[in-house]
Design a protein that fits this description.
Strand content: 5-15%
Number of strands: 14
Number of helices: 18
Shape: globular
Distance between the termini: 15 Å
Helix content: 25-40%
Structural class: mainly alpha
C-alpha cells in the first residue's frame, strides 16, 4: 500500500474543515494543529481527534465538486453519473465518468482511497491510545473506542462498495513514520472483507447507545447505525455483482487467491434478510418509524411526508445523518436560474433529471406509466395507468396555489414525482418569492437562452431535498440512511431466498402507503406481482423512486449488474433548445460510456506501482 495512507496516518497533524450551523459533536473541530503528545492530554483534545475521524463521513450535498482537495468531504459523483441525472457542463467528475474519461490515474480515485484509509488508520491509532486520556475515564473511553471501531468499519464498507475487495489492516497500529515495507499487503477476498466488517460492526454496536443522547450527539455513531449498516453490507454481498460473478474469475492475488467467490450462494440473501428483520424487530417503532406529516387541516399528507422526511432534521425515520453538510451547494444546483427574480430564488439549475427518471415515477393510481421502451427509444405506455404522452391539461400540483396548464406527462403523477421534479411551468418552492414560476423551455426564465452555463441540460431539475425558503440558507443536516432503506432491503433479500413470503409485500406496500399510492393488490391497476421475477422488478422500481437523488441508484445498478443497460448509450431529456411544442420532444442529450470494468473503481495506479502485492481490478490497466 502506498505511503499516501501512511502520510495521512494521524489526523492530529491535519486541519479539519467541517462546519455546521447545528449544535452537535462535529462542531468540535480544532482551530490549529495538534502535536501527537497533545492528543490525549485532556478530554477536549481527545474529542477533537475523534471528530477528525468523523470528518471522513461523506458530504453528499456537494457532488459536482466531488472530492479533489476542495474541502468537500468524500462527496461522490453518484447522482449526476447515474441514470437519474446529468450535471450542467460546469460539473467535472460526473461528466468525466459519463463519457468514460477516467482511469486509475484520476486524482479523485486516489483521493477516495487515501481519505478512507486515512480514517481507518486514524481510528485504529485512536483505539490503541485513547486509554492515555486519564481525564476521560470509563465508561466514556469504552464508548470512544466503540465509535472509532464503528467508523473504521463504515469506511471499509465505503471502500468495498467502490473498489470491491480491499486491504484489511486489522488492529495493528502502523506508526506515522512507517516505511513502505511495513504496509505492503495483499487484498483480502470480498467474503473475508464482509465477514470482518460485519463482525466489527457487531462488536462496536455492543458498546454504543441505541440512539443519540440529546441534540449535541447528533451524527455520532449508535448501535442503530451499526446494525443498519450491517444489513446494508450483507445485502451488497448477496447481490449479483459479488455473489458468484463469473466476470471476476480472473481477479486473483499474486499467490492465486480468488478475490470474488465464483459460487453463487442463496444463503447470502438469507443472511441479509435476517439482519434486516432483526433490525426492524429491535428498533421499530421504539426508536425509528416511517416519517409521516399532516397538512394544515390535520390530515395525513403523502406529499409533505415524502418531501419533509429529507428536510425535518433528525426525524424518527433518520437512522444516520451528517450534521455538517454543504447544503447550499446542492441548493444552488437545484434552484433554477430564474432570470429577473430576487437573488434568494436564483441559482444554477444545473442538476438536470433524465427523461427515464421522470418516466420511472408512478401515476396517482399506483401504476407504472411506462412498461418499457421500443428499440428506437420510444416508450411503451401502460394503458392501465391513464398516462398521456402528449397534450396539456389544467392541473394543480400538491404545493401549488392554483391549477396551471402543463404538459400531460406531468399530470396525475404520484406525490413523490412532485417532491422530486421541477418541470416547465412549476411554481417555485420559495414562499419569499410568491408566484414565481419556473420555465425551462429555451426562452423561459430558466432556459438555455438566459445563460451560457446555468440551465438544465434536460429540461427538468431535481427538487428533492430543496429547502422551502431562500436557497442560500444552510445550517441543516443531511440524511445518509433511513428506515425506508431497511424496509426495501428486507423485501429485496427476502424475495431472493424466500419468494412468496408475505413480509415481502407487506414492507413494499408500507413504502407505497406512505407515498400516498395504492399498494400492490389494493387496486386493479396494480395487481400483486405474480412471480419472483415480477416482484424483483417491482422492488427495483420502488427503490428507484423512493431513493431518487439520495446516492442510492448508482450502487443499485452496479450491484444488480444492470448498469450496462442503464448507464451506457443514449440518455434523453427534453429539447431545451426549443420552445413548445418542440420543447416537449424527447431528444438525446448525451451518449454515455459504460464498460464492464466500470462496475468497480480501479485501484489507484500509484498504489499498484508501489505495492507489488496489490492486484488491479478486472479490466483496468495494471500499469
Amino acid at each position: 500500500m502506498k505511503l499516501t495512507i501512511a502520510k495521512h496516518c494521524l489526523a492530529v497533524v491535519l486541519v479539519l474543515s467541517v462546519c455546521s450551523c447545528e449544535e452537535g459533536f462535529l462542531d468540535q473541530v480544532p482551530d490549529d494543529r495538534l502535536t501527537e503528545p497533545d492528543v490525549f492530554i485532556n478530554k477536549n483534545n481527545t474529542e477533537m481527534f475523534l471528530a477528525n475521524i468523523y470528518a471522513n463521513i461523506p458530504d453528499e450535498m456537494a457532488q459536482r465538486f466531488v472530492t479533489t482537495g476542495n474541502g468537500h468531504g468524500n462527496s461522490g459523483p453518484w447522482t449526476g453519473a447515474s441514470d437519474e441525472a446529468e450535471y450542467a457542463p460546469w460539473s467535472t467528475t460526473p461528466n468525466e465518468i459519463n463519457t468514460g474519461n477516467w482511469n486509475a490515474s484520476s486524482d479523485w480515485v486516489e483521493t477516495f482511497w487515501s481519505r478512507y484509509y486515512q480514517g481507518i488508520r486514524n481510528a485504529t491509532y485512536f483505539m490503541a491510545n485513547v486509554d492515555k486520556c486519564v481525564p476521560c475515564r470509563e465508561p466514556l473511553v469504552k464508548q470512544y473506542k466503540a465509535e472509532a471501531r464503528a467508523l473504521r468499519a463504515l469506511y471499509y464498507y465505503y471502500l468495498m462498495r467502490m473498489f470491491g475487495p480491499v486491504i484489511l489492516l486489522g488492529d495493528e497500529v502502523v506508526p506515522p513514520d512507517a516505511g513502505l515495507e511495513d504496509v505492503v499487503l495483499p487484498r483480502a477476498s470480498f467474503d473475508e472483507c464482509v465477514d470482518y466488517v460485519v463482525s466489527e460492526m457487531e462488536a462496536a454496536a455492543e458498546s454504543l447507545p441505541n440512539a443519540p443522547a440529546g441534540s449535541t450527539a447528533y451524527g455520532r455513531m449508535t448501535r442503530s447505525i451499526m446494525l443498519a449498516m450491517r444489513q446494508e453490507v450483507l445485502l451488497m454481498a448477496a447481490s449479483p455483482l459479488f455473489n458468484g460473478n463469473a466476470d471476476y474469475v480472473d481477479m486473483k492475488n499474486v499467490d492465486g487467491k480468488q478475490l470474488i467467490s465464483q459460487e453463487y450462494s442463496p444463503a447470502k440473501w438469507q443472511r441479509a434478510a435476517e439482519a434486516a428483520k432483526a433490525y426492524i424487530s429491535e428498533f421499530v417503532p421504539q426508536y425509528h418509524d416511517l416519517y409521516r406529516k399532516n397538512d394544515a387541516g390535520g390530515n395525513f399528507s403523502a406529499f409533505l411526508s415524502c418531501r419533509d422526511v429529507m428536510l425535518d432534521s433528525w426525524n424518527t425515520e433518520w437512522i444516520f445523518g451528517r450534521p455538517g453538510s454543504d447544503v447550499t451547494t446542492r441548493q444552488y444546483d437545484m434552484t433554477p436560474y430564474h432570470a429577473g427574480a430576487l437573488d434568494v430564488s436564483r441559482g444554477g439549475g444545473g442538476l438536470g433529471v433524465t427523461q427515464k427518471m421522470v418516466d420511472a415515477y408512478f401515476m396517482a393510481n399506483g401504476a407504472s406509466p411506462i412498461l418499457g421502451y421500443n428499440p428506437d427509444g420510444t416508450p411503451i405506455v401502460n394503458p392501465a395507468s391513464g398516462y398521456l404522452l402528449s397534450g396539456t391539461s389544467s392541473f394543480r400540483a400538491p404545493d401549488d396555489t392554483q391549477a396551471r396548464t402543463i404538459y400531460n406527462q406531468w399530470v396525475n403523477r404520484e406525490p413523490r414525482f412532485y417532491v422530486g421534479i421541477t418541470y416547465d411551468g412549476r411554481l417555485w418552492i420559495n414562499p419569499n418569492t410568491p408566484g414565481l414560476l419556473t420555465f425551462t423551455r429555451k426562452t423561459g426564465n430558466s432556459g438555455s437562452s438566459q445563460s451560457q452555463w446555468d440551465f438544465s441540460p434536460t429540461g427538468y431539475i431535481a427538487r428533492k431535498n430543496m429547502i422551502v425558503g431562500d436557497r442560500g440558507v444552510g445550517g441543516r443536516a443531511l440524511v445518509l440512511y433511513r428506515l425506508a432503506n431497511v424496509y426495501l432491503n428486507y423485501a429485496e433479500a427476502l424475495n431472493e431466498y424466500d419468494p412468496g413470503n408475505p413480509d415481502i409485500l407487506n414492507y413494499l406496500n408500507k413504502i407505497r402507503e406512505r407515498a400516498g399510492i395504492p399498494g400492490y393488490g389494493d387496486e386493479p391497476a396494480v395487481p400483486i406481482p405474480a412471480s419472483q421475477e415480477e416482484m424483483r422488478e417491482a422492488i427495483h422500481k420502488e427503490r428507484r423512486v423512493e431513493f431518487a437523488f439520495e446516492s442510492v441508484r448508482w450502487f443499485d445498478t452496479r450491484r444488480w449488474k444492470i448498469a450496462e443497460e442503464t448507464d451506457d448509450g443514449a440518455q434523453y431529456g427534453l429539447d431545451i433548445n426549443s420552445d413548445p411544442p418542440n420543447f416537449y420532444n424527447v431528444v438525446r442529450f448525451e451518449t454515455r460510456v459504460f464498460e464492464k470494468k466500470h462496475y468497480l473503481f480501479p485501484i489507484p495506479l500509484d498504489e499498484t506501482l508501489i505495492n507489488n502485492l496489490l492486484v488491479q481490478n478486472t479490466g483496468w490497466s495494471a500499469n
